[in-house]
Amino acid sequence: MQAQNRREFLETSARAACGALALGAACPLFAADRPKASPDSYCGLYCGACSNLLAGRKETDPEKVKCLGCKSDKTAGWCATCEIKACAKGKGLESCGECQELSCEKLKAFHNNGRDYRLVAEKNCLAIQAKGHDQWLRDQKKRWTCPKCGSRFGWKDEVCPKCGVDVLSVKEEAAGYRETRAQ
User: Fold this and answer.
1) In whole angstroms, how far apart are CA 56 and each of 93, 103, 123, 163, 172?
2) What does pTM read for this prediction?
């Protein structure tokens, strides 16, 4: 039997610990085994707060992951066939917030369909236009992280799923934006 170096030993031990070595499955302890999640989108949504992406980040079986965000290699059906995504990608944009035609018909229809998270996506496009894409991403990561415990929470959450502290829900954010938008 050949001696293992330290790295090989640790890798073998970790894979065995999560059962992946014997089963040939992906191990959640290794980033290389997990598909890469993408928290942003083209339309202004912050995918990092989507329940599908949040669940995908926790899933240990890659076959059970539904979606890891609009810009990832693993998207849900509706994201995979999105016309807004195709348009922005075709123009070489990171986001519709960078587009000269920010209020195109496709985007207007998406943002104005009555769902709170889609209205917030409009607000996000305007923020991207004002601050730039990278700053917006940093702001969104902070916005969707519990200020008390540091856990991630989603669009539908009104309290942190881990510690129970009140958090700003997408419903509340949309209500505030509606007031500003109406002025």
Assistant:
1) 25, 31, 26, 21, 25
2) 0.77
**For residue 7, which phi and psi values (nearest 5 degrees)?**
-60, -45
| Residue 17 or 147, more confident | 147
DSSP state of 2: P
Place of tokens 């599908």: 52
Q: Any idea of the CA torsion for 47, 51, 57, 59, to the nearest 10 degrees?
A: -150
Q: What is the mean pLDDT of residues 153-176?
A: 96
User: Looking up tokens 């894409």, which residue turns up?
Assistant: 133
Q: Where are the domains of the chain?
A: 8-35, 38-182
54: exposed, middle or buried (C-beta count within 10 Å: 0-12, 13-18, 19+)? buried
46: β partners: 40
